[in-house]
Amino acid sequence: METLSRLEKTIAQRRTADPSQSYVASLHAKGLPQIARKLGEEGVEAAIAVLSGSDEELVGEAADILFHLIVALNARDVPLADVLAELDRREGVSGIEEKASRSA
C-alpha cells in the first residue's frame, strides 16, 4: 500500500503543474470527462488483457487502471484512504450480501 500512497501524493503534486510538462496536469486541464474517459479506456484494455493478453500485459493494464483511478479520485478530492476504508469495511462480508445491502 506504500506504493499507492506515494503515487497518490505524486499525482496530487502534479495536478497543478504545467500541462505541457505533466500528464496528470494535462488530464486535469481537460476536466473530469477526459479523466473518466481515460479510466474507462484503461478498464476496457484490462478486460481485454484478462481474456487474451499475456500476464505481463495484464499487469501493465492493471497498473494503468490503478494510476488513472487515483487521478480520478484526486480530481474529485476523494482520498484513497476512503476507498481503502470501504474495502476494510467489506472484508469478511459475502459479496452477495454486500451487494444486496446497497440495493436495500
Automatic annotation (TrEMBL):
The keyword Cytoplasm applies. It is found in: Cytoplasm. One of its GO terms (molecular function) is phosphoribosyl-ATP diphosphatase activity. Its EC number is 3.6.1.31. Keywords: Amino-acid biosynthesis, ATP-binding, Cytoplasm, Histidine biosynthesis, Hydrolase, Nucleotide-binding. Its main location: cytoplasm. It holds the Pfam family PRA-PH. The keyword Ion transport does not apply. CDD domains: NTP-PPase_HisIE_like (cd11534). It comes from the Bacteria. It is an enzyme of class 3 (hydrolase). It catalyses: 1-(5-phospho-beta-D-ribosyl)-ATP + H2O = 1-(5-phospho-beta-D-ribosyl)-5'-AMP + diphosphate + H(+). Pathway: Amino-acid biosynthesis; L-histidine biosynthesis; L-histidine from 5-phospho-alpha-D-ribose 1-diphosphate: step 2/9. Belongs to the PRA-PH family. PANTHER family: HISTIDINE BIOSYNTHESIS BIFUNCTIONAL PROTEIN, HISTIDINE BIOSYNTHESIS BIFUNCTIONAL PROTEIN HISIE. This is Phosphoribosyl-ATP pyrophosphatase.
